[in-house]
Structure formats: C-alpha cells, structure tokens
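For practice. Supply one:
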Amino acid sequence: MRLFLLPISTKRTLIYCERLTQQLSEQTYVDKITARASTTWVKWESHEKGWQKTLTQYGNKLFARIPFEEWGLKSIPPLNATRRAAELEGKERVQVAFPRSLIKNESVSDVMRSLGTERQALHKKMMLWSIVGMPISAPVALIPHVEFLVEHNLVQKSPSSLMDTLYSVARVDAFLSVALKEVERLKAARDGREAKLPETNDARDEEMVLSRSSARLIADTLEVPELEIEIERAVAQVERSLAARHELVEEKREIESATKGAEPEAKR
C-alpha cells in the first residue's frame, strides 16, 4: 500500500491510503465487506429514483458531517496478524508520498502520529455502520496500524516533486477562490447588505492550500480516482470551519467596538 499526506490548509492534513491490487485470498473479511458495500453504494447512487436513491441521498448528507480525517483513516486497512508479520519482515513496504514544499521530511512521522492518536478516543466511542454494512468510521484496529508503522520505523518517506508541482498550481487556485469570496463580501458591505469590518491578518492564521476545483486535477494526476471526493469533502469542511471562526472574530470585534463606544457615555 501507499500513503499520501495531502495538506488541505496550512494546519490540517488528509491522510489517504492507496491499496495495491490484492489477490482475493489475501483480502481480510473487513476488506471484502468494505469493497462490496462501496460497490453497492455507488450502484444505488446511480439509480434515478427509488428507495435506494433516497437512502444514498440521506446517507451522503450524514457522511458529509463526518470529519474528513475519519474518512482518510478508514482508507487504511486494519492491522491484522498477517500484515503485522509482513511489515515487520520487510515484505510490505509502506511508502508515504507528500509535498516537501508544505511538509518537512522530518515532520512526516509527527504528522502521521498526530493524525492517528488525535482521533483514537473518537474511534473508541464511535463504531457506526451504514445500513449496507460500510463502516462510517474506521475499525479501532486501524488506529494502532498508523502508530505501528511510525513506532517500528516502517515508513518509507517519499517527497514528491509531482505533488509539489500540483500544490503550486492548487495554491494559486485556492488563493483566487478566497480572493473572489472576499471581493463579494466587500461588495456586500458597500451595498449595505453586510456591515462587517474588513478582515485582517490576525484572523488568517490558517489558510487554504487546496480548493474544491483542484480535487480532480490531483486525483487524475496521481491516478487515484477515489481521492477526488476525499479532497472535495475535506476542503468543504475546512472552508466551513474557517468561515465559522471568521464570524466569531467579527462578532467579537463588534462587541468590543460597541463596548468601547458605550464607555464615554457611561462617564458623563
């Protein structure tokens, strides 16, 4: 298998596993169930109408609320005895591709460890399964797999010049996307539809490095079609998170401004 570390913003990263072709006899029970469930779900999504179509529509809305980090971890196969032995014996090399322009070579292990351990408590509490048997959040056994690779130094770091090129293009696209939204916001403020103060750098401690429109380019170039929806979901979630944070900052400013304006009146 091959892992990708894909920064979505300057502070949040998606981990995704590209599984190499496996012989049927080598697949675990979870592998077979997940593959069959995914195929069934895609088939139901293609229906024009009917209860299957309705179910997938509601299901996708629910899935969209699950943190993208969960989906990324779910792509990594659980750690079983066979995989553990193969990796320790060096038969299965785990390559980790990443853009060196955004993730330092010496930071790869820390990023992986953080992605695994930060969600461990949630995995223990959330063992949700969809109606067709597809795990919404990954099995608990998956978390030790990420830690296992790091702790046993089984990670083959592979800085990718191709990913660097993709991100250089994607960051421009992400910047333009943010700039266009800012222009629309300023127009709304000028027209009196939005009475908010201009955004300053102290509200921009985290910036997007990908946009939804770059998802297909990355997936096609890396030849991993499944990445498109994963990146789109991750970008949408981070964008919503940043927008909500910005609103809180603006509300705080308005309260502070109103409070300062009221102080001279109180002194009279």
Notes: Confidence is low (pLDDT under 50) at residues 125-142, 195-203. Strands lie at 2-7, 13-18, 94-98, 155-159. The longest helix spans residues 227-267. Residues 113 and 147 are 6 Å apart (CA to CA).
